[in-house]
UniProtKB/TrEMBL annotation:
It is found in: Secreted. Gene3D superfamilies: Single-stranded right-handed beta-helix, Pectin lyase-like. One of its GO terms (molecular function) is lyase activity. Keywords: Carbohydrate metabolism, Lyase, Polysaccharide degradation, Secreted, Signal. Belongs to the polysaccharide lyase 1 family. It comes from Marinactinospora rubrisoli. Residues 64-269 form the Pectate lyase domain. Pfam families: Pectate_lyase_4. InterPro entries: PbH1, Pec_lyase, Pectin_lyas_fold, Pectin_lyase_fold/virulence, PEL. Residues 1-34 form the signal peptide. This is Polysaccharide lyase family 1 protein.
Length: 329
């Protein structure tokens, strides 16, 4: 496997847009053609392709090949999420949801511009496949912001922000697999990202292949991620700053590789075992420790089978702060 330094301008997902013909605005949804126009760069993006586990198992393309809708209300968003077949759903402005709302297979859910926001509720990726969630601000959710569960596969959560919610920001559990969580900004929140449902849910063993890269864990408390049973969690080139409890925890025989991350003011960059959970395996290499404690490690975790490029850990604060979150694709 080739691992080389690659400039952030190459790795970021460049955006092309298609024009939106506004229709039926009173219902909060407008329909546009699926084909992109190369000269217009103001509306629906072509999202690119994920790096990491979401690139495996056939890859993750979301709503590619389907139509595009633009939604401006919670009711219109819920209707679009439940549509059968491939679809790109653009969120414009601030949309209010309640509780958890199911998204179907073969969907891209993406914000228009840098200020598209989902507030109040969350997105349930439940027993489906091929889903992209990108370029959105999530805040004040009442359960989880994004919940990937019940055997969902090929999910990419990219270039979003998450703040001030009730429970998890992005959780992956109950035999889900082939997930990439990349270029997100998590801030002013406690429980960030759980992988694995519980100590008793042994069915997660052999699943939960998840990649975290170029995320900004900015003053968040814990779970960056907290892992149980995973076949492979790969955590690389993330920026950890002022995390109150810990960075990464590997428990219940999980396999976690932590490489080339930057930890700033983090007393416990990694844990092997946590709370009442038995220990997992964790390999740490190439990480930059800035006023931070020493990582806990145990075992030799294999390198994942996909191709990826590592940035120098010392450069991660600048790269991630300039590239993570909405508006940076």
């Amino acid at each position: 496997m080739r691992k080389t330094h690659e400039s952030p301008s190459v790795r970021r997902y460049r955006v092309a847009f298609v024009p939106a013909a506004v229709a039926a605005l009173a219902t909060g949804v407008s329909l546009v053609a699926a084909a992109p126009a190369a000269s217009d760069t103001t509306d629906a993006p072509l999202v690119g392709s994920p790096i990491g586990w979401a690139s495996q198992n056939g890859g993750t393309t979301g709503g590619a090949g389907g139509g595009t809708v633009t939604v401006t209300s919670g009711s219109a968003l819920v209707d679009a999420l439940e549509t059968e077949g491939p679809l790109t759903i653009q969120v414009s402005g601030t949309v209010q949801l309640d509780g958890m709302n199911d998204i179907g297979s073969d969907k891209t859910l993406i914000g228009v511009g840098s200020n598209a926001t989902i507030t109040g509720g969350g997105i349930d990726v439940d027993g489906v496949s091929n889903v992209i969630i990108q370029n959105l601000n999530f805040r004040d959710w009442d359960d989880d912001a994004v919940n990937v569960q019940d055997g969902s596969t090929n999910v990419w959560v990219d270039h979003n922000s998450f703040t001030n919610g009730n429970d998890g920001a992005v959780d992956v559990k109950r035999e889900s697999d082939y997930v990439t969580i990349s270029w997100n900004h998590f801030f002013d929140h406690e429980k960030t990202s759980l992988v694995g449902h519980s100590d008793s849910h042994t069915e997660d063993a052999g699943h939960l292949r998840v990649t975290y890269h170029h995320n900004f864990f900015d003053g968040t408390g814990s779970r960056h991620p907290r892992v149980r049973f995973s076949e492979s969690v790969h955590v690389f080139n993330n920026y950890y700053r002022d995390n109150a409890e810990y960075g990464v925890a590997s428990t219940m025989d999980a396999n976690v590789l932590v490489e080339n991350n930057y930890f700033e003011n983090v007393d416990h960059p990694t844990h092997v075992g946590y709370a009442s959970s038995d220990p997992g395996l964790l390999t740490a290499r190439g990480n930059f420790l800035d006023n931070s404690g020493q990582p806990e490690t145990d075992g030799n975790v294999p390198t994942p089978p996909y191709s990826y490029s590592l940035d120098n850990a010392a450069n991660i604060p600048g790269i991630v702060q300039n590239g993570a979150g909405p508006g940076n694709i």
